[in-house]
């Protein structure tokens, strides 16, 4: 199978939209991602998958920490900014939890120390030990077949 067929098949899995953030020195860095999942309740662990060519890869390795902000359906512009689809920094507002930047008013912000990392193909799986969580009310931003949408309960 070719790369396009694989990408099309993976795009048929509807996901939420997250922004992965970290802090290196005084510099805040973020990227849009949907490769995020919970791993364990005891201990509380999550994982993110980061391409080795992404700037975030080296930044998480340097900081040893990251946060995942799960976006609301009102934060599409924030996602597009961090995905490089729109250059509008005015749409981004950060809060800081334990010194790690998170997206203000996200549905959830999960702050982690890197517990382990595993190189798998052209990505690294960063396993995060959850330090803190902040929750906010709202509806999730969804992503399906390369398009943004909203969750509609059935």
TrEMBL record:
First-level EC class: oxidoreductase
Oxidoreductase listed as a keyword: yes
Pfam families registered for this protein in UniProt: Flavin_Reduct
Annotated keywords: Oxidoreductase
Molecular function (Gene Ontology), one example: oxidoreductase activity
Record-listed E.C. numbers: 1.5.1.-
Protein name: Flavin reductase family protein
Taxonomic lineage of the native organism: Bacteria, Bacillati, Bacillota, Bacilli, Bacillales
């Amino acid at each position: 199978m070719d790369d396009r067929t694989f990408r099309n098949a993976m795009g048929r899995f509807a996901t939420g939209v997250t922004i992965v953030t970290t802090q290196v020195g005084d510099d805040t860095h973020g990227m849009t991602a949907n490769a995020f999942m919970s791993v364990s309740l005891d201990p509380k662990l999550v994982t993110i998958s980061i391409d080795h060519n992404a700037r975030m890869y080296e930044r998480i390795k340097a900081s040893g920490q990251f946060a995942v902000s799960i976006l609301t359906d009102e934060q599409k512009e924030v996602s597009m900014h961090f995905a490089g689809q729109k250059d509008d920094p005015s749409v981004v507002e950060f809060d800081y939890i334990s010194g790690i930047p998170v997206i203000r008013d996200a549905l959830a912000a999960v702050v982690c120390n890197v517990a382990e990392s595993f190189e798998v193909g052209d990505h690294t799986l960063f396993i995060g030990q959850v330090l803190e969580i902040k929750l906010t009310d709202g509806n999730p931003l969804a992503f399906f077949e390369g398009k943004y949408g909203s969750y509609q309960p059935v």
